[in-house]
Fold this sequence. Notes:
It contains 23 helices and eleven strands.
Amino acid sequence: xxxxxxxxxxxxxxxxxxxxxxxxxxxxxxxxxxxxxxxxxxxxxxxxxxxxxxxxxxxxxxxxxxxxxxxxxxxxxxxxxxxxxxxxxxxxxxxxxxxxxxxxxxxxxxxxxxxxxxxxxxxxxxxxxxxxxxxxxxxxxxxxxxxxxxxxxxxxxxxxxxxxxxxxxxxxxxxxxxxxxxxxxxxxxxxxxxxxxxxxxxxxxxxxxxxxxxxxxxxxxxxxxxxxxxxxxxxxxxxxxxxxxxxxxxxxxxxxxxxxxxxxxxxxxxxxxxxxxxxxxxxxxxxxxxxxxxxxxxxxxxxxxxxxxxxxxxxxxxxxxxxxxxxxxxxxxxxxxxxxxxxxxxxxxxxxxxxxxxxxxxxxxxxxxxxxxxxxxxxxxxxxxxxxxxxxxxxxxxxxxxxxxxxxxxxxxxxxxxxxxxxxxxxxxxxxxxxxxxxxxxxxxxxxxxxxxxxxxxxxxxxxxxxxxxxxxxxxxxxxxxxxxxxxxxxxxxxxxxxxxxxxxxxxxxxxxxxxxxxxxxxxxxxxxxxxxxxxxxxxxxxxxxxxxxxxxxxxxxxx
Length: 560
């Protein structure tokens, strides 16, 4: 810790955290690079943390206005590090006075002239790409140079740090989409992507998503791609043993729910005759001929690539959906995860992964428990529920409470979004004729309107009431228990209609009134924030490593 950090903590009335910052070796440079996860680690309680964040933002803006730029440090530090490495690799004199053989450097040993970046008042994506490219070039060249040096512990350490830095920048923000089967999660994601048929949706009432689906941007080509990851052969064999034990006539404590789940999984893959077969028969290779990836010792991922979203959706349905009306064989019981890569979504999903989980609250406890194991990994939680039951059903609020507990504990979760779906599903006559609205000014006014305008008015009124009701419930059940929490920063409500957003013929609602564009903007803003953070962290990491090289060489040239 340096005087700058100590003075700022004292000035901001955070003296009690001086020892904490000292233990983490926070100096001026690292202080200015702190992000939300670091805030949560350093200042666990939400009240003081929010106050600290506001002051931290203010000082960052002051430095930006002064033209301070950590990005430009890469240029200066890179030059110093090259000089240090050159000095370390240059011919030296042995104790006997003989000149040692100089190492041979590749042609890239002389770094190209790097542009000197100064942080603009409003950084652009073009600027970020330029800064990132310069830093990556620097890392590549230093790694190449390190390869030519004698193998030493310090050299291996530097290689490891740089490799880890490259891997870390690829990490993405996980947005978990949670909700009951039939709540409209898949339709919502399709509307946001602008692809009505990308994820198979519940057009068939008996169908439901049965596996975890990750949706991300395809950054390499213009195809719609799916990567299907299977469980291992051993895991499936153990599953079958467990299912057969559950269904066995010798089981005196049969659980009807477990029997139903076990039967559904066996019949989905093997057909109705599979239930009575032995484990040996069920594990024969002939059953898996169409999915050789499952039998592969390395459990190879199955790749599917298509020219359109509809084509891909059709091909992956048997791997993702439980649908007793599908004539083809179902493979979903053997699937661990399906990753769908969508082209032309860079602005939306370059740094974001949408996680669509099987419905919560289902009779299938395996699917019901899946969301609990993934909730803690999500940076943003989207709770999706039919607007007609948004405030009354138990499951959405159970997820909300769990998400909030992770948020206040400084976990991955940073915000919670409640999304009311199917807002267009409304009967104006029944809605206006309800005891609460009958003969009110709204009722009398809308009765004079045409059918379309009357329905639009009912939709908008119910949307407003839903937002008020959900906000009040969140305030009563959460905020009042934690009075220092600023609700508007962590909790939002959207009332959406995927149906109306994609309705090109006589839509009742305008695009903005469906609130799908507003949700897309939330993702775009999140994507942009992570992009800036990734660039900042990467450049800071590069600067730190290069400074370490220079410092090590200055202290003891034999270290390098």
